[in-house]
């Protein structure tokens, strides 16, 4: 029996995939063939075909090896952040290898690694978050099509060439026939290759698809202005405080000036307290995800221990009910921080069923200040799980000023 060559032993699926990907990345997708790949691997074409059969099999091998680089997101992660991480990672892989995207064309990506690291966990996460199977599948397809289309729109590795080609094509147009395209070139060209166009669209799709679980049972989803949601970045999230040691480490880096004011806080979907400077937006502190509680919190040292001084559910991004105190208390207990028996300042949020305006109820006067209709006794800000195109009808900064100063600012209205 003839002995197999040493070079064939080295032609493992991983080595074949990496070599093929290198040819596509360096020389373009038209350069990949069984002959060029076999030469690069130093094996015969027949030996390569025994590994891959045909070009479709080779592409399946390459894409599946690439999919193995996708991150494995913990099953208990928040649906919003987990979804954004998965599809952002897929987008980064695809934009890094545009030639492979061109080669695959309309062929579905169904390799075991992609199914294991993206499709299966995303569907499982969506079902766990409360979606129906139909909604989970439709949501996945929308996110996937957005990602694939955005990645293949231009060669993101060579933005200057893409912009030059577009500029030349538009220069040939008749300005009278195409006044908008020819007249807004300075705005069009940067958007052509701006990755933030994709990330912004991804967040908008995710925001629109957030499972409609509202209130104390399922947590509170973000209902504020969409333009704040797009500012969410992992590095800007609030500091997670899981233990007394975490809090001691965090508070030791705060200045006296910082400690003199309240801090923005959320209790994330895992029940963990997160802290950020007061002027931080709650949605950024929470990483864009659902929360079990949100508001403002101050601290003071007493008898050698830190404890909560003042605490409220003041958050116009999430508008949590006063019943969210239970989750806040559990998070503080877990962090070893003494606290009062409840919110020292309760904010009662209600949305008017008649005019859809957000109200802050004062002195138990449940009447809408916009239309004089009766407000419900139960929390209902996002009870239907609906997503309004413009977010809240009042500005978060203006409402915060009203709550702090008691002076009406443009926008918010308070039921008295």
Brief summary:
With 416 residues, this protein is of the alpha+beta class. It has helices spanning 6-10, 13-27, 34-41, 45-52, 55-67, 79-96, 98-104, 112-128, 133-153, 159-171, 179-183, 185-193, 195-209, 215-218, 226-229, 244-251, 256-259, 282-285, 325-334, 396-405, and strands at residues 239-241, 263-268, 273-276, 291-302, 305-312, 348-351, 358-361, 414-415.
Number of helices: 20
Largest sheet: 5 strands, antiparallel
| Percent helix range | 40-55%
Radius of gyration: 27 Å
Strand content: 5-15%
Number of domains: 3
What is the number of beta strands?
8
Uncertain ranges? 384-413
Q: Which structural category do the helix and sheet elements fall into? A: alpha+beta
Quote the average pLDDT: 82
Distance between the termini: 93 Å
Apparent shape? elongated
Identify the strand order in the major beta sheet. 1-3-2-4-5
Q: Could you give the order of the helices and strands?
A: HHHHHHHHHHHHHHHEHHEEHEEHEEHE
